[in-house]
Every structure is written in structure tokens, then in C-alpha cells.
Specification:
This protein is of the alpha/beta class. The protein contains nine helices and five strands. The longest helix is centred in the first third of the chain and has 19 residues. About 35% of the residues are buried.
């Protein structure tokens, strides 16, 4: 029986922690990157059943993932959404409209935890609502960070990534998604470049009903 992996990272809001956030993330990532190359390759191979569904905000990803979950597959929920919900609940400031850098660093941290936990997930496929690569690509665009190349090599997913293209007809803002369609399009363009640059094959999700979209994903994976 498949399970839904929902990880909650406890939030602390001390000034000292905020100041040390970047260095703590760097240390965590460096410890991952220092694993011998042979071990990294072996670990990456074991993650080949972990499939990324990403792309434009508001383009039906969450609805698609709910359908895949309904069919018995494990789903790793989007880290960014979980962080926004927690920060709004606790009055934190690591929110994309307040402090994008702090938000993205938190997303990378949570995505790394999700990645490690996915090894224990049940089911044939484990679907990720976005991945480490999404946040690393955003950090590169924002700060010139080198994490994209580093984490893109050390943390591999299934070689086929599904990208939801912009779908303006269904795009809506909500309390947790406050950016406009232009920002969503910019994000999509960034991801459309980032994944192929790391050696992934990108499959664009067709704009069809949810059941047919889920069929499309599963049939494409069965062909590998």
C-alpha cells in the first residue's frame, strides 16, 4: 500500500539561526557532496523510480499528483507550499514575497530531506511535486549560486522529468501563491533550461483532463 510522505521541518525563529542559515545549508550540502563518487552513483541509481513533476505554477501539477496518489502511488508534496504554510502559521519571514533568499534556502533544505526519505517510500513510483533542482535553479538566478550544478550531479531523479507548460486559462492566485502569471512564465522558462542542462529528458504535459494526464505520465514511464 503506497503512502504519502509528508515531512514537517520544525521552525525556529531566533536571530542567531537566521544569521547562520546560509552557512548551515552550505555545510549540509558539502557533507553530501563529499560522498565518494562511486557511492553517489549507486545512490542515484536507487532513486530512478523517483519522478519529478514540475513546471509552471498554476498549471495543474497538484491536481495531477492527487490523481496519481489516488491510483496508489507515493507523492512527495511541494516543499515550497509546506514552508509557506508553516511560515504563515507561525509569523515567520521566510516567504517568497518577504525574503526570497531565506525562502529558497529553506526549500533546498526540505527538498534534501524529502530526497533522503524517498528511499523508504513504498510503491513502484514516487512522484515529487518539484525537486531540489527547482530551488537550486531559482537560487542561481537570484544569487548566482553554484548549487544547481553541484546538487544536480549528486542528487539524481528518474531521467524523464514531466514539465507542466503554462496554462493561463486555469491560472489563479491564492493566499500562498501571490506571484502573477509573468513570474510563473519566467519560472517555467528557467526550469525548461535547467533540467536538460543536467542531462534530463523533458516531457511536456499535454493540456488534457486529469485522468488522461495521469495516463500519459504512467504510459511514458512504462516505456523506459
Amino acid at each position: 500500500m503506497a503512502c504519502v510522505v509528508i515531512l514537517v521541518v520544525s521552525i525556529r525563529h531566533s536571530k542567531h539561526q537566521c544569521q547562520c542559515q546560509a552557512s548551515a545549508l552550505q555545510s549540509s550540502i558539502l557533507s553530501t557532496l563529499m560522498v565518494p563518487k562511486s557511492n553517489v552513483n549507486k545512490y542515484s541509481s536507487s532513486m530512478s523510480r523517483c519522478v519529478v513533476i514540475t513546471g509552471c505554477s498554476g498549471a495543474g501539477k497538484s491536481t495531477l499528483l492527487s490523481e496519481l496518489q489516488r491510483r496508489g502511488h507515493t507523492v512527495i508534496k511541494e516543499p515550497g507550499r509546506r514552508i509557506v504554510q508553516e511560515e504563515m502559521r507561525t509569523g515567520g519571514r521566510a516567504l517568497p514575497w518577504l525574503d526570497m533568499s531565506a525562502f529558497l534556502h529553506r526549500v533546498v533544505e526540505m527538498a534534501l530531506i524529502d530526497y533522503a526519505a524517498a528511499q523508504c517510500a513504498e510503491g513502484r513510483w514516487v512522484f515529487f511535486d518539484r525537486s531540489i533542482i527547482d530551488a537550486a535553479a531559482a537560487l542561481q538566478a537570484l544569487e548566482g549560486s553554484l548549487l544547481l550544478a553541484q546538487l544536480g550531479e549528486s542528487h539524481r531523479y528518474h531521467p524523464c522529468v514531466f514539465l507542466a507548460p503554462p496554462w493561463p486559462d486555469i491560472y489563479v492566485k491564492d493566499a500562498e501563491r501571490r506571484h502573477n502569471i509573468d513570474a510563473a512564465l519566467e519560472e517555467f522558462d528557467r526550469l525548461e533550461r535547467a533540467y536538460p542542462s543536467l542531462g534530463y529528458e523533458v516531457a511536456l504535459l499535454p493540456r488534457i483532463c486529469i485522468r488522461e494526464r495521469a495516463d500519459f505520465v504512467l504510459q511514458a514511464l512504462a516505456a523506459w
